[in-house]
Amino acid sequence: MVGYCAGGWAVFLALHLALNGRWWPWLAVSLLPPVLFVAVPLALLVAAGAAGVSGAAGAAGPAGSGPEAVLAAGCLLAGWTQSGVNWRAFGHRRGPSEGLRLVSWNTQHWNQGGDPDRFYGFLRSLGSDVYVLQEYLNGFEGGEVWDIDDEARLRAAFPGHHLAVGNNSVTLSRFPPSGPPVPVGACSLRVDLRVGDGLLSTYNVHIPVQLTVMNPLRPAFFRDMRRRAAARDREYAALVADLRDNPYPVLVTGDFNTSAAIGDIRRMPRSLRDAIGSCRSVLPASWNARARLRLWRIDWAFTGGGARVGAYRFRDAQGLSDHLVQELTVTTPGALASAPPTS
After folding, report:
1. Do residues 168 and 135 lie in contact, with contact meaning Cβ atoms separated by under 8 Å?
2. Rounded-to-integer distance, Cα 86 and Cα 95, Å
3. Greater pLDDT, 249 or 216
C-alpha cells in the first residue's frame, strides 16, 4: 500500500512541476496548502520505515520498504521549493533594525462595514514611515466592485505623509515622491521615493485572485478561471517588464494571491531577493488571518538593485482583514537618511 501511495504522489508531483504556472487549469490544483509538499512525503517516509520494521520482525511482513523510502525521499527533495517552508529561519540572524520602516497590507475592501475610527487607529499604531496598502475599494467577492474616496480622511490621519493613490492602491510615505505615481498594469502602483540622496522605487502589488467560489462542475467556473488566469498573466507581465526597465533600488511587496506552490511566483526576476530570509518563522503564512490554522503565504516582499531587508515579520491585523500585515525595515545603497519629521 505504501508503494502505491508513494508512486501516486510521485506522479502527481511530476505533473505539478511540469504544468504548474504553464497550464491555466492547474491553477485550481495548485491551491493546495503548500505544506502538503512536505507533509505527504514525510508521512510516506514514516510509513515506509514502519513497513520495514514490520518486515524485519517476521517473514510474512511486507517487503520493498527500501525503494518506497527512496521514492518518498525523492518526492520530498523535488517538492521542497513548493512547500513554503522557510529553511533559512533555522540559521536566522537578526538583521539591522535601522532603516526605512514599511508595512504592506491587504485591507480587505478598506474597512467595508467596519468602524473607521478603529481602522485608522490601527493604521496609525503601526508607526510606519511608508504604508503600502491594497484593496482601496469596496465590493464583494464575485460581485460588483466600486471605487471609494477617503483621501480627506487619509490626509487628516497622516499629516506627515505624502499620499499616492491609483489602481485601487494607497501608498503613504514620509519620504517625498520624485514624481507622480506610476500605474503598473491594472492592479499595481509604483511610487518612486526620495530616500537620502537616492531613490527607492516601491511597488504596491495586488495580483488578481485565481477563481471565484462557485460550482466547479459548471462551465461558468472554467470560463471564469480562464479569464482570471489571463488577467494574472497580464499583471505579472506588466510588473516584470517595469522592473526590468527600472535602474533604481526597488521594493516589491503586496498581495500576490500566489503561494509557494503556485508557479506564477517564478516569474519574478531572479535579480530580486525574497525578504523571507529575514523572517524568523519556519512556516510563514499570511492568510487566512482570521483562522486559527494558517497554511498559506500569499503576501510577499522582494528587494533588488541594492535595497536590503533587515527585519521582516507578519503582524496580526486585529480582525480587520483576512491578511496579516507585512512589517519590514529596508535599507538602500549608502547611508539611509532618517525619515523626515512629522509635520
Report:
1. yes
2. 16
3. 249
At 140 the three-state DSSP class reads coil
At 274, which amino acid appears? D
Residues 287 and 173: their CA atoms lie apart, in Å, by: 25
- Encode pLDDT of 98-127 as tens digits: 789 999 999 999 988 889 999 999 999 999
Element holding 163 (H helix, E strand): strand 162-166
Mean pLDDT of the chain: 90
Banded pLDDT at 53 (limits 50, 70, 90): low
Contact 323, 315 (CB under 8 A): no
Closest CA to 193 of 206, 185, 183, 203: 203
What does the chain come to in residues?
A: 343
What phi and psi values does residue 68 have, to the nearest 5 degrees? Answer: -65, -40
| The Cα angle at residue 248 between residues 303 and 181, in degrees rounded to 5 | 90
Does 172 score more than 90 pLDDT? yes
Which burial class, exposed, middle or buried, applies to 315 when counting CB atoms under 10 A from its CB (0-12, 13-18, 19+)? Answer: middle
- Separation between Cα atoms, residue 168 and residue 109, nearest integer Å: 10
Indicate the residue type of 9. Answer: W
Contact 275, 311 (CB under 8 A): no
CA 330 to chain centre: 17
CB atoms within 10 A of CB 218: 10
E strand or H helix that includes residue 238: helix 219-244
Long-range contacts of residues 51-54, Cβ cutoff 8 Å, at least 24 apart:
51/2
Average pLDDT of the residues in 204-219: 88
- Enter the pTM of the model: 0.91
Cell of 218: 459548471
**What's 276's DSSP letter?**
G
Look-up: residue for cell 540572524?
93
